[in-house]
């Protein structure tokens, strides 16, 4: 069996317009499935409309993290659907999504992480990314 035949596509709905996924969600689904695709992995997928590379761990530049969250917020406010993806759809995309939603909804990060966990139980922000999310939210109050 070829490698592509075993590739698992992960896409989960967070709300009516917002989705989380792994790298294959934006490469193996038909073009036009999402109005915008924000990739926060090191390499953009072919259908990526916005790319903000982050690492899954320490060493992310504050400005890069803030730009990824700001882009997610802007795209989520628009009409249409948004997929935020990273390699596995577990850490980077979950953190960016939860931070964007917490800011937009003016609610605690824990609450929006629970929304992400309901849709994607394997989601688990890396502690370094979680720390950036807390700082991002504190800077907005």
Describe the structure in your own words.
It is a single chain. The protein has 141 residues and is α/β, with parallel strands linked by helices. The protein has a single domain, classed as Protein tyrosine phosphatase superfamily (Protein-Tyrosine Phosphatase, Chain A, Alpha-Beta Complex). The protein is 41% helix and 12% strand. It has five helices and five strands. Helix 3 (92-105) packs across helix 4 and helix 3 packs parallel to helix 5. The longest helix is centred in the middle third of the chain and has 16 residues, at 62-77. The radius of gyration is 14 Å and the shape is globular. 43% of the residues are buried.
Topology:
Elements: E1 11-13, E2 18-21, H1 25-28, E3 36-39, E4 50-51, H2 62-77, E5 82-85, H3 92-105, H4 109-119, H5 127-139
Parallel strand pairs: 2-5, 3-4, 3-5
Antiparallel strand pairs: 1-2
Nearest-integer average pLDDT = 90
User: What percentage of amino acids are in beta strands?
Assistant: 5-15%
> Main sheet, how many strands, which sense, barrel?
5 strands, mixed
Q: Spans with pLDDT under 50 lasting ≥5 residues?
A: 1-6
The SSE order reads EEHEEHEHHH
Any idea of the CATH class? Alpha Beta
Q: Can you count the helices?
A: 5
Q: What is the architecture at the second tier of CATH?
A: Alpha-Beta Complex
Helix content: 40-55%
Strand order of the largest sheet: 1-2-5-3-4
Net shape:
globular
Name the CATH superfamily assignment.
Answer: Protein tyrosine phosphatase superfamily
Structural class: alpha/beta
Terminal Cα span: 52 Å
InterPro entries: Dual-sp_phosphatase_cat-dom (IPR000340), Prot-tyrosine_phosphatase-like (IPR029021), Tyr_Pase_dom (IPR000387), TYR_PHOSPHATASE_DUAL_dom (IPR020422)
GO molecular function, one term: JUN kinase phosphatase activity
Protein name: Dual specificity phosphatase, catalytic domain
Organism: Halogranum gelatinilyticum
């Amino acid at each position: 069996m070829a490698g592509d035949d075993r590739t698992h596509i992960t896409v989960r709905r967070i709300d009516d317009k917002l989705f989380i996924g792994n790298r294959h969600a934006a490469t193996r689904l038909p073009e036009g499935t999402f109005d915008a695709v924000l990739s926060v992995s090191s390499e953009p997928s072919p259908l990526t409309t916005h790319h903000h590379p982050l690492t899954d761990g320490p060493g992310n530049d504050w400005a890069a993290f803030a730009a990824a969250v700001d882009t997610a917020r802007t795209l989520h406010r628009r009409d249409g659907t948004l997929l935020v993806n990273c390699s596995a759809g577990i850490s980077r995309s979950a953190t960016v999504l939860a931070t964007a939603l917490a800011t937009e909804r003016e609610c605690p990060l824990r609450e929006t992480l629970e929304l992400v966990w309901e849709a994607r139980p394997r989601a688990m922000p890396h502690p370094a990314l979680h720390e950036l999310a807390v700082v991002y939210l504190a800077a907005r109050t």
